[in-house]
Q: What sequence folds into this?
């Protein structure tokens, strides 16, 4: 028998060791009640504030490296931390501590004809692997959600945020330990080697679920290669359809916010659909153009303003994450629904209309994780939904869909209480 080391053995052993430590920590978490978990999170938030200067300094090194490596403005915005954003991160951890604990909740209860009493009860998923890029706030967000849900987390952040992630993780571990919680409940992969990601994806039986958060290339790789269940969305190709009965002033306001509030988030509008019978199309596109948004349109959209560039076939399937927007003029609700069906990524799609029947039909027929009426797609966020920090937006149809927060990080088990029944 060959004694040569197997391919990837070192990375597999690394991940296995981290996973075993995480699973042991998760068992300890299972013995902590809601008050103890909340106290640990409040301690972690306090540690983030106490280490704010070190975290911002570490982030400055990542920003400098990103600028030197030519990261786009949108990517740098995702990466950047300052005192205000760091306070927001700490506050988000505290907010999770204040949320209702889903663990132990009875989903339903029944007694079947045999006399058995059946209950479905929420339990943690176990050890969750999170693979993410750019945003260092994810380190704290997912740590808080996982821990409050009774889960351990194994984090692997992107190289562009390596110093920020390490500083945030160190503060979190310090805070958890100070509160008597196992620091190994939140672990950060100690290497940026890409093969470590492969080892996480192969760790079936050790890691219970993988959540990728990042660009299309990362998510596609995870979905293609994982032997572990994956909770993910691939793109945020979000549409706003301005119906013929839309209020013109509302249409301008919502279009500007949906695109320009923050262009680099997955809930940013990427395609604007203007009903041919809507009278305010010129005002909507003019407002976007004046806000320094590049518009790429079909021939009818181009006729609204000479500054609109021609759209290519690829534009309708592009997640720009930048101040670029594709615009099409459509002939009514059916045409809008058809366009969305062909090009939406199933993330978030919205209609602007005063017509209740049109709004209800849009809600019923658009098959996306989030469907909105008269609201900016930028609200596609767990915090805005009252869920606290989110671990991501799921666009699949199994387990969880839309913003995934505490409840989405649990599964359930059946509890069966009998009285000596035997099956005939």
A:
């Amino acid at each position: 028998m060959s004694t040569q080391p197997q391919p990837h053995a070192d990375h597999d052993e690394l991940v296995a060791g981290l996973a075993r430590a995480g699973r042991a920590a998760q068992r300890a978490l299972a013995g902590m009640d809601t008050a103890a978990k909340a106290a640990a999170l409040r301690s972690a938030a306090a540690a983030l504030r106490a280490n704010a200067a070190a975290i911002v300094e570490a982030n400055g090194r990542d920003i400098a490296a990103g600028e030197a490596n030519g990261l786009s403005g949108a990517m740098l915005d995702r990466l950047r931390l300052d005192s205000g954003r760091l306070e927001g991160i700490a506050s988000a951890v505290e907010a999770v501590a204040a949320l209702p604990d889903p663990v132990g909740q009875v989903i339903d209860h029944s007694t079947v004809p045999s006399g058995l009493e059946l209950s479905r009860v929420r339990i943690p998923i176990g050890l969750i692997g999170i693979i993410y890029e750019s945003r260092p706030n994810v380190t704290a967000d997912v740590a808080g959600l996982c821990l409050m849900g009774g889960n351990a987390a194994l984090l692997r952040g992107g190289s562009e945020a390596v110093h920020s992630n390490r500083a945030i993780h160190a503060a979190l571990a310090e805070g958890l330990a100070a509160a008597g919680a196992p620091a190994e409940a939140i672990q950060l992969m100690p290497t940026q080697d890409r093969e470590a990601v492969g080892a996480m994806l192969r760790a079936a039986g050790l890691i219970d679920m993988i959540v990728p958060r990042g660009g299309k290339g990362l998510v596609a790789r995870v979905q293609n290669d994982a032997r572990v269940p994956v909770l993910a969305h691939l793109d945020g190709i979000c549409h706003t359809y301005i119906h013929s009965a839309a209020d013109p002033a509302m249409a301008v306001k919502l279009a500007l916010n949906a695109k320009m509030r923050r262009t680099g988030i997955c809930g940013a509008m990427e395609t604007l659909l203007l009903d041919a019978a809507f009278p305010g199309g010129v005002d909507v596109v003019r407002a976007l153009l004046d806000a320094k948004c590049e518009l790429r349109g079909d021939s009818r959209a181009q006729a609204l303003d000479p500054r609109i560039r021609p759209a290519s076939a690829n534009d309708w399937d592009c997640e720009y994450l930048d101040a670029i927007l594709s615009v099409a003029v459509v002939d009514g609700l059916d045409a809008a629904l058809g366009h969305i069906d062909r090009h939406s990524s199933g993330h978030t799609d919205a209609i602007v209309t005063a017509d209740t029947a049109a709004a209800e039909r849009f809600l019923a027929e658009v098959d996306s994780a989030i469907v909105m009426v008269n609201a900016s797609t930028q609200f596609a966020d767990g915090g805005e939904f009252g869920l606290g920090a989110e671990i991501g937006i799921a666009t699949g149809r199994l387990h969880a869909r839309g913003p995934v927060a505490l409840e989405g990080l649990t599964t359930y088990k059946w509890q069966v209480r009998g009285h000596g029944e035997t099956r005939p």
In short: DSSP finds 14 helices and 16 strands in the chain.
